[in-house]
Every structure is written in C-alpha cells, then in structure tokens.
Design brief:
The protein has about 300 residues and is mainly α. It is built from 13 helices and 3 strands, in the order αααααααβββαααααα. The chain has a 3-stranded antiparallel β-sheet, with no helix packed on it.
Length: about 300
C-alpha cells in the first residue's frame, strides 16, 4: 500500500510538476530512507498508521547520526510534500507533518569570489590555446556572467545562443525558459569557441563538448571550475554554484535592482534572491568601519 503511493507521488513530480531528475532522485532517497526507518521489515505498511511520533523519532535518529540540521530540514520538506499530496488525493485525513517543526539551522551566507580575484581569473590565468582551453574559459565566463546553474549550462544547445541579439535562452527548473543578455566579451568568447568547434568538425548540437565531440557532463564542468578557481581563491568550496553566488553578489554590490537579479537567476520568488543582500550589507558595514572617523 505504502509503496504504491510512493510510486504515484514520484509520477506526480515527474509528469505534472516536471521536476528535474536530480530533484526527483533526492525525493526518492529521502522518502525511501524514512520508509526503511519506520518499516525495517519491508512489509505492506498501512499508510494510515504513520503518525507524527514516527517522524519525530526519525528526526532524532538523523540528528544522532550527525546529519546536519540543513539536510534534515530538506528531508522533512520531501515528507511534507508527500503527505500533502496524499491529503489532496484523499488517501489520508490527518497529516502527520502538521505537528512537525524542523531543527533550527544557523544562517549561512552564500560563498562568493571577490571581484579582483575574478578579474585575475580572466586576465592572469592561462587557459591554454587549444580547444580545451577555449572551452574551459567559456565555461567559467558563462557561469560568472550569466549566473546559470551547472545543469542549465550542460543542457545549452548551439541554437540557444543568439549572437545577433546578444542573448542566450536557458531552460531552468520546471522547464521554465528565460532569456539572459550577454556582454560583448562573452559574445566574443562564444564566437571564438563556436568557430573552433566548427573547424574541428564537432557537430554535436550541445554547446559544450569534449575534443571527441561528446556532450560535456556536469562532473567535467565541476572539475574545470575547481581547477581554475583554485588558482585565484582560497575559499574552501570551488564549484559552479559558487560562481552563481558570485554573479548575484557582484550585481547587487554594484547597484543592480534585486528584481532584475531575481529574473536573471530564474528564482520563483524574491525571498530566494534576498539572501544575497546580506553580503551587500556586510560590505557596507566594512566600508563604514573603514571610512567613518568613529566607525570602530
């Protein structure tokens, strides 16, 4: 019975909500972990018998296993969506999540790379003269100048690049399209890369490819970003998502409208974008302390 409803929920996320494969995998893992906890014998567990005590016991076991509060809250979010779905389907009357609150998480500001370090990346770091160097430079430039996610980057196709209008079309979460303007420098990098790609006869419709013409995967993008960021910054995390944080933070630090940044990032609501204003506030505080006679 329980397993049948899990399948129905995953189908709902896949075909109606149209979530990405990564998101669906996270939901599956979280729900299967909870089911294994309350039903270790893998019997046909009656779904109506699940209650808030089961959920609280699971939370306690996760925290005991040193799972971070942030990860626990993500898992609880999966459970909330599942039981809300079951209520709408009239499978259950009482939602066991109604009495559940997750553990408190410390506020964590988005990690980003300083502006002068990004300048060093593109002016001082050697990417190489061959195809790989041209492509890797483009990867870093696209991530920093557009703020797109790693999955959005690897799904870009040649046809999504509009050099005439200096824009790129990005397919974001829930298959929502957005148009992002590109700078003259990024346009030139795209032109150079596409020219080399054509000269090497790499006809793959995906924008980013390897030297043998195969589409570049997300792991390859991650390795490239980590390799080059390591040459200009000492921050612990050096990932494509850090460049997304960097894009948003630098825009806001330089006076960009937060609603415009929201649209560029493809955020569904403003609250997701507002976290980047905290970095801007910290910058203002530092400027005040340095410049005001009594700032100390």
């Amino acid at each position: 019975m329980l397993e049948k409803h899990l399948y129905s929920f995953i189908d709902y996320l896949t075909y109606e909500k149209r979530y990405s494969s990564h998101t669906i995998t996270s939901y599956k893992n979280d729900l299967n972990q909870f089911v294994s906890f309350i039903n270790p014998e893998h019997e046909d567990y009656p779904i109506g018998e699940i209650n808030y005590q089961n959920v609280r016991a699971w939370i306690a076991s996760l925290l005991k296993d040193k799972i971070s509060a942030r990860s626990v809250n993500r898992k609880l979010s999966s459970l909330k969506s599942f039981f809300k779905f079951l209520q709408r389907q009239q499978v259950i009357e009482v939602n066991p999540m109604s009495k559940i609150s997750g553990p408190k998480t410390p506020k964590r500001l988005p990690v980003f790379v300083d502006e002068h370090q990004m300048e060093d990346l593109f002016s001082q770091v050697a990417f190489g003269e061959g195809f790989n160097g041209t492509r890797d430079r483009l990867i870093l430039d696209l991530l920093y100048q557009t703020g797109i996610r790693r999955s959005e980057l690897t799904h870009l196709q040649d046809k999504d690049i509009d050099l005439f209008n200096s824009t790129i079309k990005v397919l974001g979460k829930r298959n929502k399209e957005r148009i992002i303007p590109i700078s003259i420098s990024l346009k030139r990098n795209l032109e150079s890369y596409l020219k080399v790609k054509q000269e090497l006869n790499l006809p793959n419709m995906m924008l980013l490819v390897s030297e043998n013409g195969k589409a570049l995967n997300e792991n390859a993008v991650y390795r490239s970003v980590k390799k080059y960021l390591s040459q200009v910054t000492t921050i612990q995390k050096k990932s494509p998502h850090v460049l997304r944080h960097t894009f948003a933070t630098h825009l806001l630090n330089n006076g960009a409208d937060i609603n415009a940044v929201k649209d560029l990032l493809g955020h569904a609501n403003l609250s997701a974008t507002q976290i980047y204003t905290h970095n801007t506030i910290e910058k203002l505080k530092n400027s005040y302390k340095q410049a005001h006679p009594r700032g100390d």
